[in-house]
Write a structure and sequence with these properties.
8 helices, 6-stranded mixed sheet, binds adenosine-5'-diphosphate, 2 domains, alpha+beta, Rossmann fold, OB fold (Dihydrolipoamide Acetyltransferase, E2P), 34% strand, 5-stranded antiparallel sheet, binds magnesium ion
């Protein structure tokens, strides 16, 4: 069928606002999505992800703002004329219709000729690895197979934009992880611009070209997975993605200090207001007391230590009372020498892992 290069469109979201009573589901949202990109909308429940996807699909009309696919303004275009395929959170399949009936449905409402429908349905089912399942009934399928049917229905008319709302949330962990890889491979093969919604940070990090982190209908940070994880822009992102403790630090004479000593940084600190140091368990290290030049050091007292098979989790308290955690791999030769509760230790944090964020909502 069509080659991947012709199959995509950029999306420009500008100032999109949608209120339900006093709730601002979307609050002046701006977001540019590149042609052919796999973009994930990541945020907690109620942050506005589904509302934004419904605005893109045309099922929700925003109160204000502009939405363009390529050059064309879409706000007033009805859903079936937007060229968008959608996988809904609950799949929304017709339970009494056959698999082929479900997958062919978007083509029948577009009045595509019968022979063409049959050919495209076969293609879509092959593409999601359900070749030969056309005659089955939906209620004879497993959860994973239903998910594939919903996907086949979304791609059957070869949309230039594919929208997916938490499509894997009903599947068990093993199948979910396999489908993450499969969905990403399908995107790479078909090449359409994809907007994927999840509240699962690991899923977002696994699948995406870029991640838009959303909270209270606002964009908190936009970036590739490494930037989102390693360089969170604010407390919300640092807290929502990965684990972190936060240590309040002082800014004096342009220097960032903790307990009077300057912190070594590899980038200028964010400007204005109070700053917090992001302390991730897997970035902290147990170090000898003589300081290494490429590290920042923190004295702490061990609170507890838990053996977790492949790793250990140590909890400790810094001088100012901040509780932190450290996770590291368990090695046969070091396991016996791990510190005990009550012991004084020194924690090292590499300069490149020393990340500051502004205190507050972001
Ligand atoms: P998410 O998909 O991130 O969980 P939603 O977009 O579904 O979030 O919802 C964002 C906010 O808008 C929530 O506070 C939700 O309760 C509210 N909301 C969404 N749809 C409606 C609706 N049809 N009527 C009233 N409130 C709604
Ligand atoms: Mg939702």
């Amino acid at each position: 069928m069509r080659d991947a290069s012709a199959a995509a469109l950029p999306i420009r979201i500008q100032g999109v606002t949608k209120a339900y009573g006093r709730v601002r589901a979307l609050d002046a949202m701006d977001l540019d999505i590149r042609s052919g990109e796999f973009m994930t909308l990541l945020g907690p429940s109620g942050s506005g992800k589904t509302t934004l996807l419904m605005v893109l699909a045309g099922f929700t009309r925003p109160d204000a703002g502009s939405l363009r696919f390529g050059e064309a303004e879409m706000i007033r275009t009805p859903p079936h004329l937007r060229g968008v395929g959608m996988v809904f959170q609950n799949y929304a399949l017709f339970p009494h219709m056959s698999v082929a009936g479900n997958v062919g449905y978007p083509l029948r409402i577009r009045r595509v000729p019968q022979a063409e429908i049959a050919r495209r349905v076969d293609w879509a089912l092959e593409t999601v690895q359900l070749g030969g399942y056309g005659a089955r009934r939906i209620d004879q399928l497993s959860g994973g197979q239903r998910q594939r049917v919903a996907l086949a229905r979304a791609i059957v008319f070869e949309p230039r934009i594919l929208l997916m709302d938490e499509p894997l949330s009903a599947l068990d962990k093993k199948l979910r992880e396999r489908m993450q890889i499969e969905l990403r491979q399908l995107h790479d093969k078909l090449g359409m611009t994809t907007v994927y919604v999840t509240h699962d940070q690991r899923e977002a990090l696994t699948m995406s070209d870029r991640i838009a982190v959303i909270n209270h209908g606002r964009l908190m940070q936009l970036g590739d997975p490494v930037a989102i994880y390693d360089r969170p822009a604010n407390r919300f992102v640092a807290d929502f993605i990965g684990e972190s403790a936060f240590l309040a630090v002082a800014v004096e004479d342009g220097e960032v200090r903790h307990e009077g000593r300057p912190l070594r940084l590899d980038a200028p600190p964010p400007r204005g207001g109070r700053l917090l140091l992001v302390l991730r368990p897997e970035r902290l290290q147990l170090v000898a007391s003589d300081p290494a030049p490429d590290m920042n050091h923190f004295a702490a007292t061990v609170e507890g230590i838990v053996y977790q098979g492949d790793s250990f989790l140590l909890t400790a308290r810094l001088g100012d009372g901040t509780e932190i955690a450290l996770r590291d791999v368990v090695r046969r030769d070091t396991i016996a020498a791990l510190p005990k509760p009550g012991e004084r230790i020194v924690l090292g944090l590499n300069v490149r892992d020393t990340v500051l964020v502004p205190d507050g909502e972001g």
